[in-house]
Design brief:
Layout (H helix, E strand, L loop, with lengths): L5 E6 L2 E6 L10 H15 L6 E6 L3 E3 L14 H7 L1 H10 L4 E5 L2 E3 L1 H8 L2 E5 L3 E3 L13 H9 L1 H10 L2 E3 H7 L4 E3 L4 H13 L3 H14 L4 H16 L2 H11 L11
Parallel strand pairs: 2-3, 3-5, 4-6, 5-7, 6-8, 7-10
Antiparallel strand pairs: 1-2, 8-9
Helix pairs in contact: 1-3, 3-4, 5-6, 9-10
This protein binds ligand T3D.
């Protein structure tokens, strides 16, 4: 395989990061995982990127760990996860911008975790997800044991993990594993249009909303109420709020994108 393992492109505020090992269904080696994490961190501080899309080249999204890249590794499993997958998932969850997992094809193993980790998940009609770990007698990782039961409940999650059943797009939508399913032949354009809608929204308020939701996943109601009150102050003091209220009064569409 030649060429960069992660392709980066920016259009209309949308930074698209494409996993680029199509011959292996974008199975993840260390170079890909570290490059993806770096690219996300760069997007976080780049004003040109208001939304980040993660997708795959070719017919796969990501087939999880590259199984050809494991033997002879000089790290334990724990060390490897802490070096590669865990920083990646943490970066997605703490990124100040919305991250869309655009699942163009099969997402397996840690690729399934990556598909679930986005703030929004959009799938192509032919995409699928497999918690494939038990096929090779491993434990689901990269956040799958955290994301999946919160979406489908403990028992369904256990069944999907224990039997490594393939979930197809219509079932994924029904189960809450994705927000949208787009036709295969117009997938990229549909993802771009969806991401551009998001890019036009108030970036500062969405950042605070993400922080509140992420914290809310593990907080009590009392903690969430306190968190909302604190973050609302930050939102209310920001120019975006003034623009939103002014636009409402003037009966026009608010303009949340400003040159910095
Ligand atoms: O730190 C650690 O190491 C622990 C972390 C673990 C995280 C994990 O993700 S563990 C899980 C690893 N992933 C897998 O076990 C998935 C293995 N792949 C599959 O089960 C199947 O390929 C799929 C269900 C994903 C897709 O099946 P299908 O029939 O559509 O495609 P295919 O023919 O199996 O694969 C196409 C090519 O991609 C093929 O190469 P070839 O024969 O054309 O040269 C296949 O070998 C390659 N490929 C697919 N998945 C991987 C892979 N090569 C390396 N590693 C893979 N994971």
């Amino acid at each position: 395989m030649t060429g960069p393992v992660i392709l980066e492109a920016t259009r209309a505020g949308v930074r698209t990061l494409t996993l680029n090992r199509p011959d292996k269904l974008n199975a993840a080696n260390d170079a890909l995982l570290l490059a993806l994490t770096d690219a996300l961190r760069r997007a976080d501080t780049d004003a040109q990127a208001r939304v980040v899309v993660i997708t795959g080249a070719g017919r796969g999204f990501c087939a999880g760990q590259d199984l050809g890249d494991v033997s002879g590794r000089d790290m334990t499993f724990t060390e490897h996860l802490n070096h590669t997958y865990n920083p990646l998932i943490r970066t997605i969850r703490t990124l100040s911008k919305p991250v869309i997992s655009a699942v163009n094809g099969v997402a397996a193993g840690a690729g399934a975790s990556l598909a679930l980790a986005g703030d929004l998940r959009v799938w192509a009609q032919s995409a699928s997800l497999i918690e494939v770990f038990s096929n090779i007698a491993l434990v689901p990782d990269s956040g799958s044991t955290w994301f999946l039961p919160r979406l489908v409940g403990y028992h369904r999650a256990f069944e999907l993990m224990a039997l490594a059943e393939r979930v197809r797009a219509d079932d994924a939508l029904r189960l809450g594993l994705c927000e949208q399913v787009f036709p295969d032949d117009t997938f990229q354009e549909a993802v771009q249009a969806y991401a551009e809608r998001l890019a036009a929204r108030p970036a500062h308020a969405l950042n605070l909303t993400k922080q509140a939701l992420v914290a809310g996943m593990t907080s009590t109601l009392d903690e969430a109420l306190d968190q909302e009150a604190a973050l609302q102050q930050l939102a209310g003091d920001h120019w975006e709020h003034e623009e939103g209220v002014t636009a409402f009064k003037e009966k026009r569409t608010p303009q949340f994108i400003r040159e910095t």
